[in-house]
Amino acid sequence: MERKHSSQAKFSVIVWFLFMFNFVGIFAETCEKIDVCSCRKSNGKVISLRDVAGGAKGPAIKGIKTISPPGTVFEFDWNPCTTFTEGSSCTDMLICQTLPNSQETHPCANSVASFESDTDGNTVINYEPTIEKATSYKRTFTITLKCDPNKFPGYTDGVREVYKVKDSKYSMVFSTKCACDDACASNNDNPAENSNGLSTGSIILIVFFVLLFVYLVAGILIKRYKMGVESVPEVIPNYEFWTGIPSLVKDGVLFTCQGLKSGCTSLCQKCSKNGYSEI
């Protein structure tokens, strides 16, 4: 009997997590790359840095300090949309690393791998890694765009570096009004994409509801005319399964909460004994 209840609880947890996974998957925000400085979110809005970029004149944002690790003297120049050249080592790049008061430069990024949205709704630019030919040094850059309607062209606190042997990962946060939905978008941001076409999220939702409608209508017709079911709601296809989902989700939530409560209680009891582990 206990084994049966345990199996039901596990099944309830599985149903709960599948429900939450599908819900989040449908409504999670994404940002599809248009070009190196713009992307279209799943809600149809465009994030574009074209107004921030310096174009052919050179990097729009220069002398970005390195704030971590402390004491690092290197700085960075960034041009969001157009490549530029600095020194002999940094050629046709979107981001270059520079050493102030010298001619030393290093390539950091010349193309965008992808755009994505983080859990806070910010747009993140993932640049393709670059490998310096002379030293085989690999550099990877990520920039998080934070919406600030009152800032233009924008500001950053600086660059953070995670260093390994011949491998550096750089990241920074850039706050600007151009990181807000459609704030700096124009017809230059891929006119073909600016047509009245539907976004990916809209297409997914339309397909989902169409399939749901077909499923319900076909199921009702089969049960009514082939199986002879006339009562409501029994005529709904898989009626028993759908009516059982709320209780299964509830059981899954309760089972998960009880497990977490039990684990926390056990941990607190161990910590409150004497603070020492038994030998």
Automatic annotation (TrEMBL):
Keywords: Membrane, Protein transport, Signal, Transmembrane, Transmembrane helix, Transport
Main location: membrane
Keyword Protein transport tagged: yes
Entry's transmembrane regions: 203-222
Subcellular location field: Preautophagosomal structure membrane
Keyword Transmembrane: yes
Signal sequence extent: 1-28
Pfam family, one: ATG27
Membrane topology field: Single-pass type I membrane protein
Record SUPFAM superfamilies: Mannose 6-phosphate receptor domain
Protein name: Cation-dependent mannose-6-phosphate receptor
Source organism (scientific name): Porites evermanni
